[in-house]
Amino acid sequence: MSSWKKKKRGFEEYSCPEGIALQIGDIDKSGVIMSKVQGGMKCVKYLLFVFNFIFWLSGLLVLAVGLWLRFDPQTVELLTGDKAPDTFFIAVYILLGAGGLMMIVGFFGCFGAVRESQCLLASFFACLLIIFGAEIAAGVFGFINKEQIVEEVQKFYSSSISDVSNSNETAIAFIYHQSLNCCGGTSSDPTAALCAEVPEGTQDCLTAITDFFNERLHIIGFTGIGIAGVMIIGMIFSMVLCCAIRNNREVI
User: Fold this and answer.
1) Contact call for residues 237 and 128 (beta carbons, < 8 A)
2) What are the transmembrane regions (predicted)?
3) What mean pLDDT do residues 57-85 have?
């Protein structure tokens, strides 16, 4: 039977028998007892890992979409004119930043759950809390400034049909026509060069843009609420696991 106390290089080192150590936790190569959560906390640990892995993949997808929008030749060509709104590239940079942040947060959560690191789990919680607050702020800002956003998009479309001789602006107008199934700036006076072959009764694009935002506002809102709910679950899991790790180490 192994001793509870032994000498090592002139220093006293305390250890417990192997059987007891295995009940408390695992022993690493240096002989230090590593605490491990047991029972229901194991389920929380693996759920948190899966949650963060999906979160990391989502961040990778957002980052990929942002890079595609930023460097896609067709998109850049269409939206680099003098009249192009700066909000497009601002949104792209926000996507890039959000994707990178999501990947970092997902890494903190995954590695923190696997290693049972209180520091990483606390960092994960703090990052999620910041993202949660930013999402709430963005939602409130978007709801309050919805009319202004619609007006800016309408102005951009109107500028794209003001000069039909410009191929870039005509291509932008065509994208609006295809996406919103509309044509022209007003229902009474559509642009003849662009809407000559459009069926009678087609909605004008200024009205279509307004309807587009109004119809999808509730979808965006429900999606935001769903994402916020997932974040709250992630924060709860991380705090529960962090407290369980701390309590387990205090017992040891």
Assistant:
1) no
2) 46-68, 88-114, 121-144, 219-245
3) 74
